[in-house]
Every structure is written in structure tokens, then in C-alpha cells.
Amino acid sequence: MSPALEAVLAKAGLQVTPDEFLSLVADAAKRLAPPHPDPAGYFTPDQRDALTDVGLDLSPHHAGDDQPRARTVVAHAVLRDSALTVAEAARQLGVDTSRIRHRLGVGRLVGWKDRGSWRLPAWQFAGGGVLPGLEAVLAAVPTDLPALVVAGFMTTEQGDLLVEGAPTSPRDWLLAGGDPRRVTEQAAQLGTPA
Questions:
Q1: Are 127 and 173 in the same domain?
Q2: Which of 43, 76, 93, 126 is the most buried (most CB within 10 A)?
Q3: Organism's domain of life (predicted)?
Q4: How many other C-beta atoms lie within 10 A of the C-beta of residue 179?
Q5: Are 183 and 175 contacting, i.e. CB atoms less than 8 angstroms apart?
Q6: Residue 178 lies in domain
Q7: Cα separation of 177 and 172, whole Å?
């Protein structure tokens, strides 16, 4: 296997072999979307007419469009690999596993079921606890958003969240002691048209 891939995985702190990582990527690619989707196939003829009338392009996928899909597949694989199990989260927080499941149930932690077991994205943990302001942020996030969208938001620099004059991610903003209300305002807008 490529020493470069091993180095990237080690630098990212991912506890997985290159073969395991590539298997995760292939698995995520199969589950995320067909390789060459035809958007028009998801709609009835009347719906297609209405959508094209307002200017939407329902033409099939083009080979040149693969880069965004590849980035999504890799992001999904990294999110899955770096996520904690219920037992790992319980150890990190110093609580019983039932407390973790309760927090998941009431929206005080975010996670998803993977082959019958809960997985909790690592971005929501800090040191021996949860991210400061996490409960308020999660309460503001629309409940129908996939974990990958929430993780992307929490770990992507936002131009209006500045730490020492530099744009920072919502996660880093909260870690630096920033006001959680700034993040909750943004989180509440996730998934809504701009």
C-alpha cells in the first residue's frame, strides 16, 4: 500500500490501515449515491416539467462532476472512522453507557446508527467532556439534517466567526470561549435556502 496514504492517515489521527480506509471509502460510495445519477428519474413527468420551467437542470451526471462526489465520499468515510462508539464516548465522559444513549435520545449528543450500533461524531467532544455550548447548538440544528452536514458545518471556517482576527469553525469558536448564540443562529439556518 502507498506510504503516502499511510502518512496522511497517521497525520489525520485515523486509527485505520490504508486497506481498511479504502474499504470504508468504497462502502460509503456505494451507500451515498449511484455513480451516475439521473436527476430526472426521481420525478414524475409533471414534476420534471415544473422544475425545468423554473430553470432547474435535470440533465444526467457528467464525468467531470466527480470531484465533489469524491470529496463527499472521503468526508463520510473520515466521519465514520473517527466517530466514537457509545462505550468510547461513555469512557471519555466518565459516565455509564446508558447516559450516552439517553443524551442521544434527547438530542444532547448527535449520532447515527451504523449496522445497529450508535456512532457519535468526534467533533462534539473536547478533552474529557463535550464541546462547550453543544447542547444549545444541537437544539438549534434542524432535526432532519444528516450527520455529515452537521459535521461539515461545525468543522468549516465561517467568515463571521473570528478568533484573533482569523475566520474559524464553529467548533473552534466554541473551544476558544466564543458565544454559543453566534453558532446557534447559524445552525438554525442550516438546510434553508440562502
A1: yes
A2: 76
A3: Bacteria
A4: 12
A5: no
A6: 83-188
A7: 9
Sorted by sequence, the CB contacts under 8 Å of residue 6 that are 6+ apart come out as 18
pLDDT at 167 over 70: yes
Among residues 40, 43, 38, which one has the least CA distance to residue 61? Answer: 38
- Containing 167, the helix (H) or strand (E) segment is strand 166-168
In a domain, 134, yes or no: yes
Grid cell 468510547 — which residue? 88
Per residue in 130-159, pLDDT (tens digit) is: 999 999 999 999 888 888 788 888 988 888
Bridge partners, residue 118, by sequence: 113
The answer to whether residues 52 and 126 belong to one domain is: no
pLDDT digits (tens, 9 = 90+) for 79-125: 888 899 999 999 999 999 999 999 999 999 999 898 899 999 999 99
Q: How many CB atoms lie within 10 A of CB 43?
A: 15
Do 13 and 43 fall into the same domain?
yes
> Grid coordinates 496522511 are at which residue?
8
- Nearest-5° Cα angle at 128, 126 to 129: 60
CA–CA gap between residue 25 and residue 162 (Å, rounded): 33
